[in-house]
């Protein structure tokens, strides 16, 4: 394990409209017993706790083992205005210190956050590129940390210069397997390999064995039976095919694969 200084992180949306959307949609399996404005809050706490355990950060584990209500109260201290949506970046160091970076988030419809989600047919699809160099899976791709060099390098290679760009790049391991997006989890529509002629297409997402991170929206989609895991290689991708992307700030959004992108 590298001796570089890093923190474990998780990024999510705070939105005061989220509890009402969950209630109106009647989604009993939405994973937040407190029905907080924090999107998928229990999953974020779990992800941080799992990373702290992996890195043997005992003080961080102790902090993250507090109950969900206490964790939410800690985050509440960083919300400048509880009537507005915010993008939160939760940062925990090896000493168990937890800080939260907060930025204003766009007001958007939340129907695409709750499985089964609704995506407007007039939505603008994101461009989805494939990295031009392989990424070797490591603890820094398995767990979300501030050591984001692999992800930033992939974005730079494909000319994605701003977090506001409606584009993402798929990281690929040395076997040619798609790992994940630089800021999203991808989903592709495929038939099962066995009896393909008899099966309807279904959504698949890369397995963790390919080297990507256990994203929170990914976990939610799998738990709700929206998708299943399946290895997908760059050779399986089709130029122009529609896909889905997800993260805990934007929800589930449309994507379109672009194979002929030339790096800057």
From TrEMBL:
It comes from the Eukaryota. GO terms for molecular function: catalytic activity. Pfam families: Aminotran_4. This is Aminodeoxychorismate lyase. It comes from Aspergillus calidoustus.
């Amino acid at each position: 394990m590298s001796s570089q200084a890093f923190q474990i992180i998780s990024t999510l949306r705070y939105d005061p409209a989220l509890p009402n959307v969950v209630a109106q949609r009647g989604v009993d399996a939405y994973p937040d017993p407190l029905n907080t404005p924090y999107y998928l809050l229990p999953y974020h706490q779990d992800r941080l706790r799992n990373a702290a355990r992996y890195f043997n950060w005992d003080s961080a584990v102790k902090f993250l083992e507090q109950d969900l209500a206490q964790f939410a109260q800690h985050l509440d201290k960083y919300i400048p205005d509880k009537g507005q949506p915010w993008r939160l970046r939760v940062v925990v160091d090896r000493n168990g210190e937890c800080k939260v970076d907060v930025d204003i988030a766009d007001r958007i419809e939340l129907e695409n956050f709750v499985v089964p989600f609704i995506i407007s047919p007039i939505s603008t699809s994101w461009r989805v590129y494939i990295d031009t160099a392989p990424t070797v899976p490591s603890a820094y791709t398995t767990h979300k940390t501030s050591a984001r060099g692999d992800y930033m390098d992939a974005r730079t290679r494909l000319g994605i210069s701003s977090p506001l760009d409606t584009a993402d790049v798929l990281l690929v391991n040395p076997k040619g397997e798609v790992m994940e997006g630089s800021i999203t989890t991808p989903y592709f529509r495929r038939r099962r390999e066995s009896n393909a002629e008899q099966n309807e297409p279904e959504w698949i997402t890369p397995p963790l064995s390919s080297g990507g991170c256990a994203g929170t929206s990914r976990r939610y989609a799998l738990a709700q039976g929206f998708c299943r895991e399946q290895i997908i290689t760059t050779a399986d991708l089709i130029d122009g095919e529609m896909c889905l992307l997800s993260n805990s700030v934007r929800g589930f959004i449309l994507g379109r694969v672009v194979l002929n992108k030339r790096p800057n």
